[in-house]
Amino acid sequence: MPMAQIASHSREETLALAGRFAQLLKGGEIIFLRGPIGAGKTVFVKGVAAALGLKSSPTSASFSLMKEYKNKQCRLFHIDLFRLEEGEVFNLGFEEMLEDERAIILAEWPDPIRHMLPADRLEMDFILKEGDERLIALQSFGRVSHALLEGLCKAANQ
Known about the structure:
This protein is an alpha/beta fold. Helix content is 27%, strand content 28%. A hairpin with a 5-residue loop joins strand 6 and strand 7. It has one domain: 3-Layer(aba) Sandwich (Rossmann fold), CATH 3.40.50. It has helices spanning 11-22, 41-51, 94-99, 143-156, and strands spanning 3-8, 30-34, 66-70, 75-80, 103-108, 121-128, 134-141. Helix 1 packs across helix 2. It contains four helices and seven strands; from the N terminus they run E-H-E-H-E-E-H-E-E-E-H.
């Protein structure tokens, strides 16, 4: 399980990092985003969506659980399972998401679905530091997510 850490010193840096990360996505990736409220998870999702050229900007999906954004090249599923337990997440359409090779799944508060999705995933833990600083701890599980982790670390150093 390869691991890495990336520092972000502002919202703008997090958006820029997400934009560079989006360039690595081909479809079929699963990314878990964890961290306290206000840590930058949704900001990261917004940066990915913007870089992928998706028209509408993601907002916190806490009240709708899942939102889909798509264009001709990809489908982005933004899942936010804040306040849900494992037994409450059935019938959200995971099977359909997983069958679509173009689907990119970004899941905030992912623990209730951890066992429902394939093991190959990139986990990102957003850790609050002083002011606008964040530390993003990354851990990859599988070949696809390991390539994402390596690419994101290279992108962060550019």
